Amino acid sequence: MVMESYSAEETFRLGEMTGGKLKPGTVICLDGDLGAGKTVFVKGVAKGLGVTDTVCSPTFTILQEYRDGRMPLYHFDVYRIEDPEEMYEIGFDDYLYGEGVCLIEWAKNVAELIPEGALKITITKDLDKGLSYRKITIE
Ligand SMILES: Nc1ncnc2c1ncn2[C@@H]1O[C@H](COP(=O)(O)OP(=O)(O)OP(=O)(O)O)[C@@H](O)[C@H]1O
Ligand SMILES: [Mg+2]
Fold first, then answer.
1. pTM value > 0.90
2. CB count, 10 Å around CB of 114?
3. pLDDT single digits (tens) 38-76
């Protein structure tokens, strides 16, 4: 499925709608260039899950957990992971197969660890359609 967004707010709302429908155990991979809008989308998902804590980008921590929503939200950013083995150190599997939802920015860096059945969302810019245009592909 392909969706189009013309602003950060629109991407946030797409995330929020997605978050409202998520079931425990869902894994969502988010790929797309720096500044594509992956974190904006996650912030929307958090809102849709009823998270009220402020969502920060976990670029330096790899993982941020939010437990005050309808179910736990595990927000990963694996931009800095060079060897997927590093993910075992933080117990990645326990999160993937747990009762919360996992959103993983730069999931392609740990592609071999992603379970079958994960949702894959790719956000791409198209400068011909304006600076704030994003194509959001969900498969
Ligand atoms: N349609 C849009 N959707 C999402 N963000 C947009 C859009 N148009 C402009 N933006 C801007 O693009 C930026 C997206 O930043 P964001 O941190 O979400 O990107 P990211 O994909 O998480 O990047 P990174 O790989 O560095 O984590 C924000 O500054 C946001 O305001
Ligand atoms: Mg980000």
1. yes
2. 18
3. 999 999 999 999 999 999 988 788 999 999 999 999 999
Mutating to test ligand 1, I would choose from 6, 40, 64, 109 the residue with most ligand atoms within 8 A of its C-beta, which is 40
The closest residue, in CA terms, to atom 3 on ligand 1 is 8
Region 14-23 average pLDDT = 97
Tell whether domain 2-138 is in CATH 3.40.50.300. Answer: yes
Query: Which positions ≥6 away from 48 have C-beta within 8 Å?
Result: 15, 16, 17, 18, 19, 20, 21, 22
Relative to the alpha carbon of 44, which ligand is closest?
A: 1
**Average pLDDT, integer, range 114-119:** 97
